[in-house]
Amino acid sequence: MKEGSVVANLATDLSLDVKTLNQRKMRLDIIANKKYLDVNKETGELYVVEKIDRENICPAKSSCYLRLEITLDNPVRIFNIEVEILDMNDNAPQFRRDIIHLDISEATSKGERFSLSNAVDPDVGTNSVKSYHLSDSEHFLIEVQTGREGSKFSELILKTALDREQHSVHNLILTAVDGGTPARSGTASVIVRVLDTNDNAPNFNKVNYNINIMENSPIGSLVIDLNATDLDEGSNSDITYSYSLYTSEKTQDTFQLNPSTGEITVKGMLNYEDLRIYDMEVIATDKGASALSGQCSIKVLVEDMNDNHPEISIKSFQSPVKENIELETVIAVVSVSDKDSGDNGVVDLHIPDNMPFTLRESSDNYYELVVSEPLDREKAPEYDITFTVTDRGSPPLSDNETMTLELLDVNDNVPQFPQSFYTIRVMENNAPGALLSSLTAFDPDLHENQYLVYFILEKEIANTSMSMLFSINPENGNLYALKTFDYEIENEFLFHIEARDSGSPPLSSNVTVHIIIVDQNDNAPVIVSPWRAQGSVVEETIPRSTDKGSLVAKVIALDTDSVHNSRITYQFLQVTDATLFSLDQYNGEIRTMRMFSYRDPRHQRLVVVAKDNGEPALSATVTIKLSTLETAVNKAYSDMTEVPLEYDIFSDLNLYLVIGLGSVSFLLLITILVTIVLKCQTPKPSSAAPPCRNSVLSERNSTIADSTLVSNDAYWYSMFLAETRKGKMVVRQPVPKGSRYIVSSLPRGTGLTNTSDSAASTLQVSLI
Questions:
Q1: Which range has highest mean pLDDT (229-238, 412-421, 640-649, 652-661)?
Q2: Burial class (CB in 10 A: 0-12, 13-18, 19+), 365
Q3: Which pLDDT band, with edges at 50, 70 and 90, does 386 fall under?
Q4: What pLDDT is recorded for position 735?
Q5: Comparing C-alpha atoms, which of 411, 421, 417, 414 is closest to residue 446?
Q6: In the prediction, which pLDDT does 703 show?
Q7: Is residue 688 pLDDT above 60, yes or no?
Q8: Residues 543 and 552: beta-carbon distance below 8 Å
Q9: 573-577 contacts: CB < 8 A, separation 24 or more?
Q10: pLDDT tens digits for 119-169?
Q11: Mapping DSSP to helix (H, G, I), strand (E, B) and coil, where does residue 2 land?
């Protein structure tokens, strides 16, 4: 019953006043049990406090009671109460063991009985175990028995004979059912193990075995693992293996049989060539009380292994041979063999693909090596021919042999020059016998076929043979000049040189040689205009009234050297007045730079040098003495040219001097003062400059008739003028203030260079 359920009303059953229960302190005691019940003092009802389990309170009893005491005060009264606990079918039958094991021999006769463990149900009466049931089985059934106390138990009965080899274990389910409503049940597994008897002989998987094994298999290699089975168990199924009497001793010596496992392994060497098939019989025997046995036949087939290398035999080989040997010529005969059989004994012979030979099969396992392409010793002087023979086994085995074929040289190559055309430049004026060049040809042949001889192919030029001008060393091809060449006479030669080998027949080739004579600057310019006798001076006359830019003379020089060396330039080497004449450096024309004045000397001396463009340069000079002629009108005036130089310096100012004539007096005074100051500062004596139209800067008398003015400043030429005859220096044009010049008076003829053997004096001019 659930907690709180009312079992009875004690107040009613005991005829008690409900209202006085609290006052009389009604108490409920349960004797020797847990307090499963209690009383409600307000109503007098007996109710369930905790759920009651009859099997726990009264185990294995058919009846079950709870004894209670009700105590009341005022007056004290005690009531004894018994509450009967009625059983409910709340427990299922349960076997003591969930699994029941039975061992039954397969030789047990049918009808044999076997006791089974019974089931227990805590419930009582009709709720206890009433019957047993067994799952369906071909071999077993059960019979339910009743004990003295009414308990039920079952017995297992063998219906039919057992066969362990067919069914070694039988799994059964035993079910116990109680009589409650609804009925409850419990189950247990019954495992019947069928015990063996030696009623089965060992059996092999197959009666006949065919085994293939490779020859040369290592000792201990597994041939076959025999497996005989016996359906029995235990010692009845333990098997030992042995050879039968029909197995030969040779076979037993070659193969080892393990008596426990049935493994057959290689014991001795297997050789396909010695014996190819082994027959044996093996017996399997069990260890039962009455032993049973079975046997099988084994045939071992030894397979051929590719364990023999193919062999090569050179039957014929000719070496050396000429390089011009004909195609399809047989060079060698080769035979091949292999001791193996089948594909292992089939062999193939080949040579490298990049050779001018091929193999041709002449008969079984015989081959001929023939020439398939033209041979050239210059490309390959010898061939290392490797014959490789390979069988068709798996893996294939091979062998090789190398033969060296040497080629003999044939004169089949003409000499070859590195170039087909040689250009050789020779400087003129060369020494006779000078080496010009080395013309060496190459012949790839050998020995006498490569020994070369050089020749000059004759060719006449102006009735002159080439062998008179040049020679060649026949052994090494060195080309020499036999004479000295002059560019101005002959500037080039063209001929052929032949190189010939010493073979039979000899082969040759030639090359064209172009000799170019290179010009040297060995010819000085020759002045042809103006013409003069050797060492004489050219005299020319021109009127003094010649205009500016007029052609005075033209110097023409010729040079017989080449264009570069014959390019001539003209320069003044000496000139009386550099401001009066100009010289064109390219065409040699001498022209006036201005008109002649009355102060210019009547005779002018011009030294012109004609220089070529060679290295080093060569030159020629011509001296022109130029005389000026006066007209009759100006003849008297021409005598004034001898006026002292100090009066002519300002004549070029023209109109500007006329305009400034008014200030001359003032400037003259300043000039005199400056001159006095300079004379005081300079220890050298200097003559006073007389007042005049031209200011005299310096006058130095020389014992030499003519002198040349030289300065370390090129600008002096435009500022000063030297009177070469009187050794005087005068101002030509206005001089910038503060300028300073250092000039020297040198003897005439020394040029513009102050040499150590020249008499010279230095003058410093300071302008204020």
A1: 412-421
A2: middle
A3: very high
A4: 52
A5: 411
A6: 31
A7: no
A8: no
A9: 573/607, 573/608, 573/609, 573/621, 573/751, 574/605, 574/606, 574/607, 574/751, 575/604, 575/605, 575/606, 575/607, 576/601, 576/603, 576/604, 576/605, 576/606, 576/724, 577/601, 577/604, 577/721
A10: 888 888 788 888 889 999 888 999 888 877 777 888 889 999 888 888 889
A11: coil
What is the residue-wise DSSP string for 702-761?
Answer: -SSS-EEEEESSTTHHHHEEEETTTTEEEE-S---TT-EEEEEEEETTSTTS--TTS--E
pLDDT tens for residues 315-325?
Answer: 889 889 988 89
Environment class of residue 555 by beta-carbon count within 10 Å: exposed (0-12), middle (13-18) or buried (19+)?
A: buried
- How big is the CA angle at 119 (ends 117 and 121), to the nearest 5 degrees? 160
Burial class (CB in 10 A: 0-12, 13-18, 19+), 157: middle
**Is residue 654 exposed (0-12), middle (13-18) or buried (19+ Cβ within 10 Å)?**
exposed
Burial of 589 (0-12, 13-18, 19+ CB in 10 A): middle
Q: Pairing state of beta strands 129-134 and 94-95?
A: unpaired
What Rg value do the Cα atoms of the chain yield, rounded?
Answer: 77
Residues 169-227 have pLDDT tens digits of: 999 999 999 888 888 889 999 999 988 788 888 999 999 999 999 888 899 999 999 99
DSSP lists the bridge partners of residue 582 as 591
Taking residues 730-754, report their average pLDDT.
Answer: 44
Which phi and psi (to 5°) does residue 675 adopt? -60, -40
DSSP letter at 365 equals T
| Tokens 């293996």 found at | 241
Per-residue buried b or exposed e for 23-47, using 16+ beta carbons within 10 Å of the residue's own CB = ebebebebeeeeebbebbbeebbbb
The span from the CA of 270 to the CA of 276, in Å, is 9
Choose among 159, 185, 153, 191: nearest CA to 172: 191
The amino acid sitting at 468 is M
Does 728 score more than 60 pLDDT?
no
The residue with tokens 């008499």 is 759
Burial grade of 590 (CB within 10 A; 0-12, 13-18, 19 or more): buried
What does the alpha-carbon distance between residue 640 and residue 600 come to, in Å, rounded to a whole number? 10
Cα 399 to Cα 388: distance, rounded to the nearest angstrom: 6
Would you tell me how many other CB atoms lie within 10 Å of the CB of residue 678?
A: 15
At 63, is the pLDDT very low, low, confident or very high (cuts 50, 70, 90)? confident
Pick from 687, 425, 688, 724: nearest CA to 575: 724
Task: Check residue 266 and give its pLDDT.
Answer: 94
Q: Which residues, in sequence order, are CB contacts of 693 under 8 Å at separation 6+?
A: 647, 650, 664
Nearby residues of 315 by Cβ (< 8 Å), 6 or more positions away: 332, 333, 334, 335, 366
- Which is it for strands 398-408 and 321-322: parallel, antiparallel or unpaired? parallel
What are the CA-CA distances from residue 203 to residues 235, 281, 297 (Å)? 16, 14, 13
- Cβ(268)–Cβ(254) below 8 Å: yes
Closest among 342, 382, 352, 347 to 367, alpha carbons compared: 347
Closest CA to 444 of 507, 498, 497: 507
Residue 259 pLDDT greater than 70, yes or no: yes
Identify the residue whose tokens are 């297992």.
156
Rounded CA-CA distance 319/403 in Å is 9
**From CA 635, how far away is CA 628, in angstroms rounded?**
12
pLDDT digits (tens, 9 = 90+) for 581-614: 899 988 889 999 988 888 888 888 888 998 988 8
Listed in sequence order, the residues at least 6 apart from 672 whose beta carbon sits closer than 8 Å to its beta carbon are 689, 691
Query: pTM score, two decimals?
Result: 0.41
Half-sphere exposure of 144 (CA within 13 A, CB side): 15
Which of 158, 163, 117, 153 minimizes the C-alpha distance to 141?
158
Beta strand 152-158 pairing with 140-146: antiparallel
Other CB atoms within 10 Å distance of the CB of residue 476: 11
Q: Which two tokens stand for residue 632?
A: 């009759």
CA distances from 36 to 61, 68, 81 (A): 19, 10, 14
